[in-house]
Amino acid sequence: MAQAAGTREKIRSGAARTPLPHPGFEVVVVGAGVVGLAIAAAFAKAGRSVLVLERESGIARGITSRNSEVIHAGIYYPADSLKATLCVEGRRALYAWCADKRVGHRRLGKLIVTTDPDEDRILEDLIARGRANGVEGLERIGAAEVGRLEPELRARGALLSPETGIVDGRALCLSLLAAAESNGAMLALERNVEALAPTSFGWRLEVSGAAGEVETIDAGLVVDAAGLDADRLAARAAIAVDELGWRQHPCKGDYFVLAPGARVTAPRRLVYPVPQQAGLGIHATLDLAGRLRFGPDAAYVSVIDFDVDPAKAEGFRAEVARYLPAMADAQLLPDYAGIRPKLAGPGEGFRDFVVEEASAQGAPGFIACIGIESPGLTAALALAERVRSWDSL
Q: Which of 10, 225, 229, 380 could form a disulfide with 38 if both were Cys (CB 3.0 to 4.6 A apart)?
């Protein structure tokens, strides 16, 4: 597996500097993150000729590489929303995929903890919502049971979610790429869609390469899985993104890790506070190597950058110490940052994913995947099947 993955990366680097091998494809997917690659794999499995265009020099360099890599159960989202439906369906599909493809993952469970009486009602609402969404095994537990499961925590109570887990996002993307390529899909790196226009057969794309060359690609369907650029790509397709409420609002989240030598025992499960308006709160998560990290916070930004402000460390430490007291004297160091493409702006309420074939918006054959923030990684396989269902070629 490792040798094959390395070979694919070498081939992709070379392919990015050569002309595209075919003048036209039945499906062109823009974006080679987890969602774009899952969509490509689904269409290729269905027998379609597929090209994936990626602006970066490798796959999964955007949102996919800068998140918590959590497999969400489906607790947080309103019933019958796409986020709820695709998260639950996607989680089940993702665990099966990871087991079949030998992608690193662990179903280790999660505790959503309360530390204040005012949070109890929120926890009850989460339990009711999760059960309405079909999430299996949810259980409300008291302080004593929290202490038995995770002795290092301090909480009034918690929601136990046994179906929550973690995944190696990079390995997942490589497995999706391998599946897509095994069915004939092609990947072109360092390609940026400069313009696209409808034609009698679908779409014509003007695509620039790393050296500034411009190529024309014909597509029957165009799937917009461009992450932070998804709204701008839709606008290039003459879709009225502002009128439709499809404009994305970048929301930055920073992560911190323990300084070397810190004496903090890591929980065995993921630990989250009750959710806040713009995010899920500063939570404690583990990666597959057992490394403990904290974050993200949530701050809307107008400039995209991935620097982590070290001055935030004290605020992070204080927030986590509410439920993990050993953090009171711990030192935190900046780790990394991610940007979420939220459709809800500051102070606005819940907004669902946009996953829509845009005929009603005057762009037939253009499938928009916009606002794919959390739980996008978890939902990717189910989202891909939904997109594939619009295949009418």
A: 380
- Could you check whether 25-65+171-247+350-389 and 110-162+249-342 share the same CATH topology? no
Q: What is the C-alpha to C-alpha distance for residues 51 and 350, in angstroms, rounded to an integer? A: 33
The DSSP code for 76 is S
Share of residues in the chain with pLDDT > 90 (%):
91
CA distance 339 to 301: 9
Which band of pLDDT confidence, cut at 50, 70 and 90, is reported for residue 393?
low
Kindly give the residue spans of alpha helices, DSSP state H, lying in the chain.
2-15, 34-45, 82-101, 120-132, 143-149, 169-182, 230-236, 241-244, 313-321, 376-388
DSSP 314: H
Domain 110-162+249-342: give its CATH code.
3.30.9.10
| 367 within 8 A of 390, measured Cβ to Cβ | yes
Is the backbone peptide bond immediately before 375 cis, with ω within 30 degrees of 0?
Answer: yes
At 8 the pLDDT is: 32
Full-model pTM: 0.93
What's the CATH superfamily of 25-65+171-247+350-389?
FAD/NAD(P)-binding domain (3.50.50.60)
Domain ranges in the chain are: 25-65+171-247+350-389, 110-162+249-342
Of residues 223 and 7, more confidence is placed in 223
CA distance 132 to 387: 25
What tokens does 300 get? 């809307």
For residue 275, pLDDT over 90 is answered with no
Helices (H) and strands (E) in the chain, counts: 10, 20
Type of residue at 381: L
DSSP letter at 259 equals: P
